[in-house]
Automatic annotation (TrEMBL):
This is TonB-dependent receptor. Residues 310-859 form the TonB-dependent receptor-like beta-barrel domain. Residues 64-172 form the TonB-dependent receptor plug domain. Keywords: Cell outer membrane, Ion transport, Iron, Iron transport, Membrane, Receptor, Signal, TonB box, Transmembrane, Transmembrane beta strand, Transport. It is a multi-pass membrane protein. It is found in: Cell outer membrane. Residues 1-33 form the signal peptide. The keyword Transport applies. Belongs to the TonB-dependent receptor family.
Length: 896
């Protein structure tokens, strides 16, 4: 069963909300699955359980109606019926949540109410925290395996600073699995479907002694790819993963329990399929010239790659939860240690030309400790007080190897543009009439001439082993104290105050190597050196010259007509690295913040609850562990500026060290050739949310409504730039909207649900985005309306045999996917997406525990765009990730 609630908004939203509520009541069109106490499977199936869902979102067991928090709940039964096997599919039944899987099997982003980040960069903590059995999974790659034996999944919307020690500024996904039982039982399940899908899972539980119980569960999933790498005759977007988990529950006394969990998960897949929305001239001409092909169209399921992608992920750990109670006081301790090993190798130009691949080898080791004490007094005051400690170390080795076709690819582009002063007979209008081989030959001759002039070895430019190689390390230590106090002056009226104080410290180191010799020289500074017969080889020597001579040299060096070196700038793909820590940049962040919550909840009647709250949240600084990690503006100021700002420079200043103004890094003599500014790290996120909510539950009907107004200052925006990633703080991003969740049981055995989320987001201030000033612009890829509906009918015979039929529908309104790309202007803003997915299942459950069923996800085979990105080193090309096609199959399950 699911139920949403949240916040506050303007008065005009009350009108929208009233209309939505009327629609939900007048059109009994679907909303939740049943849930109940996990100790009794029969209760999970009971059609008359009154929808009394037990949740622990408030760190106490309460019914969903009693919980004054914006929370959506999906039961284990719903996951089973809808064939939801991992968190990626959870969004189809939770409209406030979006999950996207992009470049690799481990690169996923969780988004709640339009806020989310952290995909594809291990230095960025997610704004949406994922907890599995109370243990924080710091990276999405550690939360993506199959979900066997799940009791329920709770999605908490908005900052949860007073309840979770590792603060998440946008929300929390809490996965609760079933603990061991003292009665013997279990289940086995086998699925076979299209794309040769094989899915096996099973669990067994029972007593070891009178006070010790165990459980073991596991799953295995294999599937052929949705797409084909045509030139390699291999599948892509396959599934190949398994997981195992063992648990012990020790209850030496009635007041003490210890739950120990150990788990291991393995993923070995090739992901992810792409398509092409727009083909630029580079892709059309240069890729073809070197014998390459690229996918044409988005939904052809045809891919062209130079290598088959490798995605390997190992995720394992152990946790121990101790619960002790003594009268009205209870104490909980959760200790956990986890390791994540993630490796991938991928063709990042997404063509069959052997240009560039990317390799990352990542390791994350995490230790967490949480301690809570809570009261259950009969009087008007109760409290929860907790402490949380987090210690994590991350290491990453990555590189961009150069493929065999890269130099020819660059030579073709050079000749096409007339670069390098290509030989006179090949200049201008004659170039287009040359064959591809002749153009490559002309460009190669120009490259060799440039190499000779720069005293480089012939074939060295873009002919080495790699463009760049990076080594990253990050240590993160944080602690927090959090708690709430409830005051109930009269029955049914509860005032809550909560707080969280977090202190977070990060130490990071970045070591980079530019592998191409061309990247190690600055073309402006090199010209000045040649023009002065080698007498000026440093910035200090240049600044010692008379001002008039400086101006003259600068004018000549920045003019393509007089400085032929400038044409080579187009081939400087990775330049300007400066390792950290250094004398100016300590490689450290330290943040602390006090956040708080005020809430009033009133139980009007036994059926109706109201609440209103104001809360703040916080997420500490994130570090850009990517090849775009460059000094912040202020630590380093590149040209143009100062004395040479009036010098015409049609191609820009090319990050000249000689012409750069004074700045700490420049003055310390640390500036490397072609150094530019970027994003070493992004500062903290600070969230603020107003919420008002209504929760009503009557016999056969329930509805939950919420209005919210949520703002995050310093939202950590993360944007792919073509060869790297830019991390920047948005000044302020906000969203207003409503969430509605309804369920109705119009007849015995029939459950209809309807859930809707409306979001109205805006960049209130984002002047320094990588693509310009976005202030006042709606953020891309956030649907205005999201709807999740379902209809479940259970027909039960006198024998106890049941036939369970379910249909669900998921819709996201048509919205612009991207706010644009740095190199494309507004071109990327034309692409939009909407979602209309229908899923269905039918299960015959015999009274002896045997179940036989069939299912289909994306029944109508609707295809749409997940997200888009600029083609790597391919100006004008826009690529995209498509959603999954229709999948279907049969299932056999036996419960005992």
């Amino acid at each position: 069963m699911r139920s949403n609630s949240t916040g506050i908004a303007g008065s005009y939203r009350l009108t929208l909300l009233a209309g939505a509520a009327a629609f939900a009541v007048a059109t009994p069109s679907i909303a939740f699955a049943q849930d109940a106490d996990d100790d009794d499977d029969a209760a999970l199936r009971a059609p008359d359980n009154g929808n009394q869902i037990i949740v622990t979102a408030s760190k106490r067991e309460q019914t969903l109606q009693e919980t004054p928090i914006s929370v959506s709940v999906t039961s284990g039964e719903t996951l089973e019926q809808a064939q939801i096997r991992d968190v990626l599919d959870l969004q189809t039944v939770t409209p406030s949540l979006r999950v996207s899987q992009l470049q690799t099997s481990s690169a996923s982003t969780f988004i709640i109410r339009g806020f989310g980040n952290g995909d594809n960069n291990f230095g960025i903590e997610p704004s949406v925290g994922v907890f599995i059995d109370g243990v924080f999974r710091s990276r999405s790659a550690s939360a993506l395996n199959d979900l066997p034996n799940v009791q329920r999944i709770e999605v908490l919307n908005g900052p949860q600073s007073t309840l979770f020690g590792k603060n998440a500024s946008a929300g929390v996904i809490s996965v609760v699995t079933r603990p061991p039982q003292f009665e013997f039982g279990g289940a086995v399940e086998a699925v076979y479907g299209n794309f040769n899908t094989v899915f096996l899972k099973g669990d067994i539980t029972g007593p070891i002694t009178e006070n010790v119980a165990f459980s073991v569960d596991g799953s295995y999933q294999r599937r052929d790819g949705f797409g084909t790498i045509v030139n390699l005759n291999e599948d892509i977007n396959n599934r190949n993963r398994y997981s195992v988990r063992g648990q012990l529950l020790i209850e030496p006394t009635a007041d003490l329990s210890v739950r120990i969990i150990g788990d291991y998960g393995k993923i070995d897949e090739n992901c992810c399929q792409t398509g092409t929305l727009a083909i630029g001239p580079t892709t059309r001409d240069a890729i073809t010239a070197v014998g390459g092909q690229s996918p044409i169209g988005l939904f052809t399921n045809e891919n062209f790659l130079s290598v088959e992608p490798v995605n390997e992920n190992e995720n394992y750990g152990v946790s121990a939860q101790i619960d002790w109670s003594s009268g009205p006081i209870s104490v909980t301790s959760i200790t956990a240690y986890r390791e994540l090993r993630n490796f991938f190798n991928q063709d990042v130009d997404f063509t069959s030309a052997d240009l560039v691949t990317e390799t990352r080898d990542q390791a994350v080791d995490t230790f967490t400790q949480e301690l809570r004490i809570a009261s259950d007094f009969d009087g008007p005051i109760n409290f929860l007080l907790g402490g949380y400690y987090f210690d994590e170390s991350i290491s990453q080795n990555s590189e961009l190897p150069i493929g065999e076709d890269f130099r020819s690819f660059a030579a073709f582009n050079a000749a096409s543009a007339g670069f390098f002063g290509a030989t006179p007979e090949l200049i201008g209008s004659q170039i287009p009439f040359l064959t591809p081989a002749q153009q490559i030959g002309a460009g190669e001759a120009a490259l060799q001439a440039a190499e000779a002039g720069a005293n480089f070895g012939i074939g060295s430019i873009l002919g080495g082993d790699f463009l760049s190689r990076e080594f990253f390390g990050l240590n993160n230590e944080s602690y927090s104290v959090f708690g709430t106090v409830d005051f109930e002056p009269v029955d049914g009226l509860v005032f809550t105050a909560g707080f969280n104080y977090t202190d977070d410290s990060k130490d990071f180191a970045i070591n980079t190597i530019a592998g191409d010799p061309l990247a190690t020289i600055n073309l402006v500074d090199a010209f000045i050196g040649v023009a002065t017969a080698g007498t000026v080889t440093s910035r200090d020597q240049f600044l010692a010259l008379p001002a008039a001579q400086q101006q003259g040299l600068a004018a000549a060096a920045l003019n393509p007509a007089t400085n032929p070196f400038l044409d080579l700038a187009a081939l400087q793909f990775q330049t300007g690295f400066l390792d950290v820590p250094n004398a100016i940049e300590p490689g450290q962040t330290n943040d602390d913040k006090f956040t708080y919550l005020f809430r009033a909840a009133f139980q009007v009647t036994n059926e109706v609850n109201l609440y209103a709250s104001y809360a703040t949240g916080f997420k500490a600084s994130s570090v850009n562990l990517s090849r775009d990690s460059r000094p912040l503006l202020g630590d380093f100021v590149p040209a143009p500026s100062g004395a040479f700002a009036n010098v015409p420079a049609p191609r820009g200043y090319f990050n000249s060290t000689f012409l750069a103004p004074s700045s700490p890094i420049t003055d310390a003599g640390l500036a490397t050739p072609n150094l530019s500014t970027g994003s070493r790290f992004a500062g903290p996120e600070e969230a603020e949310v107003y919420e008002i909510g209504f929760k009503g539950q009557w016999d056969g009907f329930g509805i939950n409504i919420a209005l919210f107004d949520q703002t995050i200052e310093g939202f950590q925006s993360f944007l792919f730039t073509g060869l790297g990633f830019a991390l920047a703080n948005a000044g302020e991003q906000s969203v207003r909207g409503f969430e509605l969740d309804a369920t109705i049981n119009p007849a015995d055995g029939l459950v209809l649900t309807f859930a809707m989320t409306h979001l109205d987001p805006v960049f209130d201030s984002f002047t320094n985005s990588p693509i310009g000033d976005l202030s006042g612009v709606r953020p891309g890829n956030i649907p205005s309306f999201s709807i999740a509906t379902s209809a479940t009918y259970t027909h039960e015979w006198d024998s106890g045999t049941r036939l369970i039929s379910r249909v669900d529908y998921n819709h996201e309104s048509n919205e612009q996917i991207s706010n644009g790309f740095a190199a494309f202007g507004d071109f990327a803003t034309q692409f939009k997406r909407d979602t209309n997915l229908v899923n269905a299942s039918m299960t015959l459950a015999l009274d002896n525990g045997l179940e036989i069923g069939a299912f289909a996800r994306n029944l109508l085979d609707e295809r749409d765009i997940l997200t888009i990105f600029p083609g790597v080193a391919q100006a004008g090309t826009v690529a995209a990730y498509p959603n999954a096609p229709r999948t279907y199959g049969g299932v056999v399950r036996f419960k005992f």
